[in-house]
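Co-fold these.
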Amino acid sequence: MPFVPHTQDDIAAMLAAIGAPSIDALFDEIPEALRIGELDAIPAGMSEMDVTRLMHKRANTDGQPLCFIGAGAYDHHVPAAVWQIATRGEFYSAYTPYQAEASQGTLQLLYEFQSMMTALTGLDASNASLYDGASALAEAILMAVRANRKVKSTKVLLPRTLHPAYRRAVRSIVEPQGIELIEAPFDPETGQTHPAQLEAAAGNAELAAVVINQPNFFGVLEDVDALTDWAHARNALALAVVNPVALALLSPPGEWGDTGADIACGEAQPLGMPLSSGGPYAGFLCCKMALVRQLPGRIAGRTVDLDGKPGFTLTLQAREQHIRRGKATSNICTNQGLLVTAATIHMALLGAAGLERVAAACHNNTRALSEMLCAIPGVEPLFSSPIFHEQALRLPTPAANLLGALAAENLLGGFDLAADYPELGSAILVCATEMRTEEEMQGYRDKLARIVATVDRAA
Amino acid sequence: MPFVPHTQDDIAAMLAAIGAPSIDALFDEIPEALRIGELDAIPAGMSEMDVTRLMHKRANTDGQPLCFIGAGAYDHHVPAAVWQIATRGEFYSAYTPYQAEASQGTLQLLYEFQSMMTALTGLDASNASLYDGASALAEAILMAVRANRKVKSTKVLLPRTLHPAYRRAVRSIVEPQGIELIEAPFDPETGQTHPAQLEAAAGNAELAAVVINQPNFFGVLEDVDALTDWAHARNALALAVVNPVALALLSPPGEWGDTGADIACGEAQPLGMPLSSGGPYAGFLCCKMALVRQLPGRIAGRTVDLDGKPGFTLTLQAREQHIRRGKATSNICTNQGLLVTAATIHMALLGAAGLERVAAACHNNTRALSEMLCAIPGVEPLFSSPIFHEQALRLPTPAANLLGALAAENLLGGFDLAADYPELGSAILVCATEMRTEEEMQGYRDKLARIVATVDRAA
Amino acid sequence: MLIHDQSRTGRRATAQAPLSSPEVNDIPEALRRRTAPALPEVSEMQAVRHYTRLSQKNFSIDTHFYPLGSCTMKYNPRACNSLAMLPGFLARHPMAPETHSQGLMACLFDLQEILKQVTGMHAVSLAPSAGAQGEFAGVAMIRAYHQARGDQARTEILVPDAAHGTNPASAVMCGFKAREIPTGPDGDVDIQALQAAVGPQTAGIMLTNPSTVGVFDRNIQAIARSVHDAGGLLYYDGANLNAILGKVRPGDMGFDVIHMNLHKTFSTPHGGGGPGAGPVGVSKRLEPYLPVPLVARDGDDYHWLTESERPETIGRLTAFGGNMGILLRAYIYARMLGREGMGRVSEFATLNANYLMARLREAGFEAAYPERRASHEFIITLKREARELGVNAMDFAKRLLDHGYHAPTTYFPLLVPECLLIEPTESETKEDLDGFVEAMIAIRREAKEDPEKVKSAPHTMPVRRLDDVRAARHLDLAWRPAANEGPHG
Amino acid sequence: MLIHDQSRTGRRATAQAPLSSPEVNDIPEALRRRTAPALPEVSEMQAVRHYTRLSQKNFSIDTHFYPLGSCTMKYNPRACNSLAMLPGFLARHPMAPETHSQGLMACLFDLQEILKQVTGMHAVSLAPSAGAQGEFAGVAMIRAYHQARGDQARTEILVPDAAHGTNPASAVMCGFKAREIPTGPDGDVDIQALQAAVGPQTAGIMLTNPSTVGVFDRNIQAIARSVHDAGGLLYYDGANLNAILGKVRPGDMGFDVIHMNLHKTFSTPHGGGGPGAGPVGVSKRLEPYLPVPLVARDGDDYHWLTESERPETIGRLTAFGGNMGILLRAYIYARMLGREGMGRVSEFATLNANYLMARLREAGFEAAYPERRASHEFIITLKREARELGVNAMDFAKRLLDHGYHAPTTYFPLLVPECLLIEPTESETKEDLDGFVEAMIAIRREAKEDPEKVKSAPHTMPVRRLDDVRAARHLDLAWRPAANEGPHG
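Predicted complex below.
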């Protein structure tokens, strides 16, 4: 009986104490008709040794292709210490710190995470994480609609340069509450979203919030100051979507425009989380202090104990579903505690200087890769603007074919933009983090050059 | 400065407190002529990311061949919990428990290890480990020579069926102290060492100890009762070399013969240690209570604290080098604490029943493999005796060629006996632990059959 | 001490960043950061030591009995962790093509099938990241179903008063009104009240069964009939699935949609508050609305079903499709349990709960529903102790920490006064349950002899009882470099 | 509570063994075990919880400042652990052929080269499993050298009185007599005494430099000359190599043979007492005697040198050639340090030691060698405190635990009364050193105001001071199923 410690003697003694003739009798309140027999279609149990063999086989099925995809998930170095500590039983197998006195480890760590995220974003308050970047944005939008006192509107403007998967997830989550999402187009030359385009998209509509992402999905840097000021001029809240590693180099949302963005959110994956096939990651959500009571999710606060000694506790719980039920700021219950643990240790190990080096190395690698690839006939940058750590490229033949040919050589050459932005023609998004070597980038160039040449000859 | 936390401010303040003008000045008592410059031949420092890439490359250099070698190191399943707990910082980065009150974790664990090893061997006392099985045997021999009160002899009889590497290591370690090792031959039919052969090898010499291994290097089971009684009849101590997993099935040294072996030692690797290219492993050494003051190495004992509460401490330290210096039982200082941690957790997880299943599965796998291989023309068992979990086979053509051909197909087919036992002709030792599947064993058979057939055709 | 308090300007964990500091010269100055963020500057050892020591301040399953009701704090097998973190899974980019994802997708497909089997549902999506997101997805599917039928009048979701707070909150997030149904004195839903509440405005009902009061609702078939007859759908909150795993299936009870908390029933780590995973299962009529992505099998090949294959889907809930690492852990656990192990989970969870309830009652504690079988959890009400000794459920909870036991869930469900919701789980030993009973008896004795000791507990934790009111009034949510004037300064 | 106390007959961690119980029917009954060994029978969670909780009872580098003199308790980088445990290294069988061992052997070869460089020796063998085994190997090589020359008269090894106990013990294990040389009042070896002791009977001398009294012997060149002139060889005990790494090399000082404690200078884990690794380096004349195996490079191929290639070797010290996993960790650490990092190790270890000595002296504590520079460690003698306050070095040591610091090494070296040998290492911060000074001052204050508090310390550990005499007199070395009549029973 894996994971069940009972001996036959235990079972007998326990049933006697209960006064039940059998374990089965303990289920006697369940209508007989509902009881099931064997779950034949489920395979028989395996020993740890056997399941280890199975999982190694599965994990090795697909090789480990060399990855030049970014597109919202980044292959950064994760210090060995991060997960060795995060998976310590005391972090790994603890729950939400309902009993603060027996959970000071988790609570202080959450407070430190919040401190780090507010430092990165330049805002006042942070929650203790949400599911991922996309769901964090959805919660940020709901929060903005609730919080905007100047404008009673359920309309939110968001740029078409926002990650397509984010736009989809946000739509799934906020539309049931009647939020109307308006998409603003981008400048096909620069890849940027200018105030004029926001203006055109929004018309005269009152807006609860304007979403501004930096860098945008194309890696292109936006004029965030102008966009923030435009939003504020319309009495809309400015809602930033940012990459936390980029923030080591880029102006923080709290300093955008004249008064700063009001809310910032994003994906914490670049802070110590492996690519992990897409999850678990962690969304972060920060805001100005004035909005804190609309912030969803767990929040840790520093207070004192009976002796006046500092300690940490979950606070502002009156916002939450387990107290407010139907009137809560969100239905959210868990956060991504384990990932927050990793992110906090990661940030402590990197520090501002380390994160800046990582950001710079990723950026320069991507620039270098882009230049190498653009030496191939027919490959060229899609947009003219400055970028950060992600580059959109135009390709001479359909991207799917080229990426497929590269994948066959165990190299993931980038994200195909065709499905989400058909107007851009054959185009991909490439990214080379600090993990990619010069040699690997040259290998990519050589492979692509060969494949392009082969296609040319074939044509 | 990796792993150095000093800021420039720190350095200045610290030098000021010392009253030294520079760090270099702190070395001013070292004769100038001895000071060196740059260590140019050492490569420049690497980041963790870079060294990670290097080590992954190195680790992947040799593939992971399918392994049918035993010969003293066994590929058993190690529960995932074992090393996740053993590498917790509190175990991993603690030292020898000199301050018992701040080391109760390590000390209690050592006591539990000792308890488990005495349970397995059927003896009274255990130390807290030695370097490996071979060095444990060397220490056991030195101990036996010191401890034998009935016979003043430095002669020790050890069987030629003992692991060749053990015989070599023992020789290196004990001969400088004037110990004379006499090798006893084995019966070429059965692969066993009988009392008659001991008799013949020893002649009339007085013996301090007789080494008895079960199973022996060939996997062959010895008549340990007869051998033990023979040793005792000669007033020699009976010194057992045993596999701890085998002890789940086999009679424990403490019960051998009329009065039991006096000392038992061996390699603890099968108890939760990966093959690890040969180390670190851990040797164990157990003895009857009468001999405990001659036992080398750390020993943990249970005692009480000032309040009468039970606690654990290193004991019998008067035996050790840090107290007795030149008169110590051994020069040994460290034990293999981290491996003992793993072994203890491993034994707790397996229990007697689990170890017995592992032993039985290994044994049956090896038997099954042996039968499959012996269906190939020219392959046959080398000895007629019962075995445990290791089988010596005769091959139709030189073993080195066959093993080389298998290795080229990424399969390690066994241990070649030629170098150590030239008298046996072309022979190997094979082992299939519980980790090997039916399919893998069939794969071995098919490959070997094909290779043998090819050689036949070529001949 | 905060990690920030250990920071010194210029200190570095040097090995962790690229060794050289590359120049970036193509980002416009106006977009660049002017001052570095105030992250801590510490050495690698400082960080390791700090977080290692912090971890030791936690209670956890790996260190303590943790009978937190409704949270299923059972053993998280260590193999699930190491195998889910194999490089082949960890290094896979979420946008990797299907050709390079077959190993992962095989696991996900198998897990979908296993979850279908144990729940009796027609189809499963693994997309939701947690129970609450599963609830959202479930209610959104109910909404989509009624909308697709043009049935716009259904604006209400019925929710028993004992439900988790997430239930009404999820209903509201999907644009519904949550209408509360009382629990009867025997712990079952008040069936009369329910029948009075259902009608053409009823979109559905959200039920936990066994409910959060720790009993299996014996009228479940009647409830199902009643809601279905009114045109509503039934939502099963899978928080308590551990109680019935392999014994009864929500699909067989008549539920149309269910979420499962894999971090409960399938033993994935709670991680100090997450991540969870909240797959949803549905009956045939709701299948088109399942959140994407899903994994389908075609011969030996696995492929994703996304928006294009599933045009009626309620959509995507996260950017990349879910908490894959958690799903893998659940899969590994499920494979180790196997078909025989599933039923044992509920059997021994139920045995432990009933035994603990029996022992506590025998010791004089009052069960909230003494006439009922406990499911995998049960409620003790300390209202008599509060009245007679002036020591309430929170005091017992805090004092239990001193005795080496994590407290049960307190003051939930709200309908039972001075309530402790106790869920021992199947992985605890009889000895530990006995120890917990002894502790409860000892605390009651202390409450008689030295009530202050209990009321001011805990005494042996890193901090004493914390001032929650101050925490909420004088918000200190983040360390600030300049104005670190908090109590810690 | 022992794991054995949690055992119940028939309990299992079921997932950890093969699920079926195979019959073994071909082993003669007489050779089979009659009763199962009394190993604990516990569930997987019980084992995990027990050993997790046990671990928390330890002080360690990862949790505490641990200034244990002569042990170099510095930070063990976590990457060294994870990278040395990559499956490619862990799953390799020790008997795997060279064709399948090139990755490992490349690392070992590189490490040999790095160690040659930093020690200035001609050749290195990685075979010894620990410092003491390295000492044995070193002295055995000295023995082999003299024997090969037919120089049988050399029966003595000189050992300073400040030496580690392993030195004389190793000499004796190689059949030598250990002759003690006194230390002069300034901490250097008494050179007159040395010169008087050397002669045709001198096989060699074993020296630690800097010595265990924490100073660099300024007469090292004279000592070398003196021993060499007499026909003896010089053995360098590398226990304190951390103090001079990248600054001075034993080979340049004239040593013929050296062992290195990789678990000190190269930061491999101490693991609660091991494993260590004690590679030996030698001058050209001792090379033939190096213990096997060694790794040689031939173009891009690596191969083993064993007994057949090295007929004069002192032989093999373990069955499989050494603590490979530890050697890998040391190699990874060395590569992260690189050539620049080596010197920094000794610089900051020395800075920390001298700073801590200066601060303690300033606070009124007495250094044993106040006129000398500290190396990476130094000695404080508490003889005045013992005399005036009745509180000795052991009391200070125990009370330090209550203050959150592991104690320094106590009562070693033996020649300094009431001695604390303090080695802070380069990885500790100035703040932690300052905290240690504050603790020492606080304890002295306590010793004046409340001496009992110090003499009965520790007060905050899992146990109070333990009865070592009872432990040695009433031996309780193993739990027994029947007669578990120990204090614990």
